[in-house]
Amino acid sequence: MEAFLHQVFSGLSTGGIYASVALALVMIYQATHHINFAQGEMATFSTFIAWAMINSGMPYWAAFFLTVGISFVGGYLIQRIILKPVEKAPVLTNVIVFIGLLVIFNAMAGWMFEHTIKAFQSPFPKDAWYATKYFSAHEFGSIGVMLCVLGLLYAFFRFTPLGLAMRGAAQNPDSANLVGIRVSMMLAMGWGLAAAIGAVAGMMIAPVVYLDPNMMSGILLYGFAGALLGGIDNPWGAVIGGLIVGVLENLLGAYVIGTELKLTVALVLIVTVLTLKPNGLFGKVLVTRV
User: Fold this and answer.
1) pTM score, two decimals?
2) I need a surface site. Which of 7, 81, 146, 283 has the fewest CB within 10 A?
3) Which chain regions cross the lipid bilayer (predicted)?
């Protein structure tokens, strides 16, 4: 039972990271109806920035918050400079741009920081008082960080005028335009937030999987599975889906299929959800009158 509970708590820890990636994917999807295939590579590049600042002597949390800010600005500029010109372009054009961004960020990370695997320090000491036999200090701390991020996002979108404007622009761009909301600007803000959330996820997972240019490839797949499971158009459903994927991955990997095949859990979930319930557990079912 003790080993089982450890797998569950560890799964919740990694599931929190998958949930943040899923949330970032959903934020972009709600506004553009496209999946940002470069989300993982953007998060990896942000984590490399944090690694460089920490190695230069900057305190961890200063580097953490500065990286989040840099990532927000980077995501904002990517939308305004690269994606705004193709907002109304065909779907295939947008897909090619996303794949291009994936390749660019991956290549830049390897070129600037090399392809060698690097250790990334955890801000949570191994012998911290909150570490237990069921979860490590880093697992507990990363859950706390992700809960703080989700709480801040909820408060932002629920109680601030800017957050409400962003929700309106994502859910009904035409009506938002009519009431004076700058939809394109709100979309850029959404890209910035998604990039910042991805950066947090990258910095939380790097101490576990180590840092290299391909670090987030598998994480993005798990995040995508969580987003589909919870509902690709439902942010909080995607969060729940990410947590479920994290627990399933750990339990199946430990007791059923082994650690070598854990990535197949995400692939099987993606195929199953798309086949049996394309809207996910909490997604909206759209009915169109013909």
Assistant:
1) 0.88
2) 81
3) 6-28, 60-79, 91-113, 140-157, 187-209, 215-232, 239-257, 263-287
